[in-house]
Amino acid sequence: MRRGKEVRVGAKCKHCKKLYYGLSSGGTGHLTRHIPKCPVLKGRHSSGAQSLLQFNSDGSVANWEYSPEVARVQLVRLIARLDLPLGFEKRILGMRLIDCSHNAESIVERVACVASDYGISDKIFSITLDNASANTKAMGQLTPLLSGYVGSLLLHQRCACHIINLIVMSGLDSFKDMLTNFRTAISFLNASNQRIAAYKSYCIAMGVRPRKFDLDMDFHDSTVVLSGVYYPTSPLILHHGFEIASHLNEYQFDNDLRFVVNPMKDKFLAYWSDIPMLYSFAFILDPRAKIKGFTSVLRLLSRFNDIDYSSYLTEVRAELSEIYKKYETKFGSMRVQRPTQPVTTGKKKYSWGKIFAYDDGRSGNLSSESLVHSMLGFGSGATGSCSSASAASLSRRGSSASALLQAAQAGSSLAGSELTSYLDSDTVNFFDEDWSVLSWWRDHKLTYPVLSILAKDIFTVPISTISSESAFSTTGRIVEERRRSLGSDMAEMLALLKDWEQGDARMQHTVEDKELEAAFQDLFLDDDNNSAGAGA
Asked: pTM for this structure?
């Protein structure tokens, strides 16, 4: 009652005019709850604010709505892209027990099950396996199941290190009886420092420089490099294959070594006379090489292997165009306006540029040794005649006419594409010690948004199974004498946990044996810079 009159105190929404209890004793919670429910305010928020437009993947336009979850995810991606170092990650996703016959059907069932569990059946670009016949048969059945990403052209890759091992073993078989004696003698010599000192004294007395026992052919070095985990190995395989071919060509007519080298070269040609497409694509997508560098390599390989690769070059261009068109269809919607390609500069001009001397007509002044050295930056070269390749190897090549027609059709449809722009641009000739092919493609992903995805997929293919096979050694340490009752599921979980922990610390498999390396270090009996007969 105020002044004798009854007064009602309330609260009214100034938008919808709805009345609410307004005494201070009633609080304000009911008023706060009304604001998001007010029909007038709802209508104003939905129609009064100016909306933002966004482009959908199909090119259509729609209203953009802010999503905190999407913003957080994109922010994390931006931070990772700008601040974290580039590199590869390796993880074991499954280690399934095959408790029955180790045949193609069992392999297919396990692989398909793991891929299905992780939802990656349509995201697999390539699978690298060794040359076991069961694996080859399994890939025949897996191909239609796992080729949903961009087809099956590059789906099956054979382990390069396994092939190198077969090449070496074919040479060792020629003198395996003598090899046993050599190994026994070297083991006996290395077992005692006194014996090593006596060996050095004998060499000095005979006027021979005492030094480390070493191999003339760098098969071990190739195996170490090609089985790496945290850097791309697919762009390196042609370098090392070229190095091996040059060594085999150099020694195949040597009176002392030809009975060893010829079986090795036959094995080399049996597997690598037909160069896998993945090796060629990876080499071309290295901006230091491109088509010009690849052409030079093919010409030198033709000299070493006595094989005409001219039709293969045309075939590679056609297949590269075809797979690029698939990527264009799959990822073309993400393209934005491409900026002008920046000029690449660096501190030092490396020997990569010398590979093009062959195309510039200056190869007549360069020996095979200098060409090999200039291309790879390590190892010795090759001289001598070439061995003839089998007719069967040549017959596996596509005909020049059909490959040329395919390349012409592909080229006409890709005029002005990213691939054409990349291949027509100059190679990278200047770069410093820290130059990385991954960093180059990251820096040019706006220039080549689709082609950079193809390059990333090709560079991530491991060309060796050594790092994966090391998982079996890990499992052997888990299922030991005191843990024989562990079930297969528990052994798989322990192996995955161990591998993922090592992956986070980047301490996964390395092919280098530190103990073996230390033992070989003792075989350097004097400094290479000292003359023969230097002090003990």
From this structure: 0.68
